[in-house]
Design brief:
Layout: H1 2-15, H2 18-47, H3 49-87
Helix pairs in contact: 2-3
């Protein structure tokens, strides 16, 4: 009975590809946030002294936190996708 129930759960996950689509779109969103913030924090100050003197220190506290949210969210969603792939 337990084997039949676990097989039914696996079949339900395969029939619903929308879960994979939502997880992959969430993963790409978190990755995009992390990349944009990384460019703002590390790339633009090296290229432009004006950016570093005028804008950089104003956006640094907020963008640093948002960058960490993007990085942690990317790791969590990657683990969720990995778990769904292993279960199916």
């Amino acid at each position: 009975m337990v084997v039949g129930q676990s097989q039914r759960i696996k079949d339900d996950r395969l029939e619903s590809p929308i879960r994979y689509l939502l997880l992959i779109s969430g993963l790409s969103t978190f990755d995009l946030v992390y990349l944009v913030v990384g460019i703002l924090i590390f790339g633009l100050p090296v290229l432009s002294a004006e950016f570093k003197s005028s804008i950089y220190f104003e956006i640094l506290p907020i963008s640093y936190g948002v960058g960490h949210i993007g990085r942690v969210g990317s790791v969590f969603v990657t683990m969720c996708v990995r778990g769904l792939i292993e279960l199916t």
